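Exercise (ungraded).
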Amino acid sequence: AQTVTQSQPEMSVQEAETVTLSCTYDTSESDYYLFWYKQPPSRQMILVIRQEAYKQQNATENRFSVNFQKAAKSFSLKISDSQLGDAAMYFCAFTSGTYKYIFGTGTRLKVLA
Amino acid sequence: DVKVTQSSRYLVKRTGEKVFLECVQDMDHENMFWYRQDPGLGLRLIYFSYDVKMKEKGDIPEGYSVSREKKERFSLILESASTNQTSMYLCASTDGRVYGYTFGSGTRLTVV
């Protein structure tokens, strides 16, 4: 069975600092996609970044970047220059041959002023 | 701006009531999904639909049913609400796995 694990229920970071959220997954598929979603207190889930498994280059979106280690089945999210607006729940998600996504249990990120 | 709209942000229902949660998307997406979100459990798939009038069970379909009569609308039905169905319900749609889901704002359902 395919699984996604986020081992950090909660993380804190000082404003302007860098934080890394961890995600590991398990699959026997070779072709798949990985995502990080952000859910602010307002609840609308927003796509932060996506990674295609066949691409070796790590995805980057402004202050957000990933460290994709395919062999280790690891997909961590790095947030640079953290801002108060980054405070949210972050979910890691995986999808392979169908459009169904498997989500992790989430990491609550607190940003300290 | 593309949207997935869930008709209610908050609902309070009584045990045994039949409950309808509505979701409408304006992106002409074929694939629509219903998840429930609970603390410590993440998002769990209830039902999904690849096309009009088509539906498939997700991981936790017990106590739920769905209806998709039109492409843009996907309804989740709680046939007889129970307290253990108190949760956040999220609707999502996509036209392909490459692009990710677009989510609605969620409906927080409380069953008393």
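Further reading is listed at the end of the chapter. For now, observe: Chain B is about 0% helix and 55% strand. The two ends of chain B are 36 Å apart (CA to CA).
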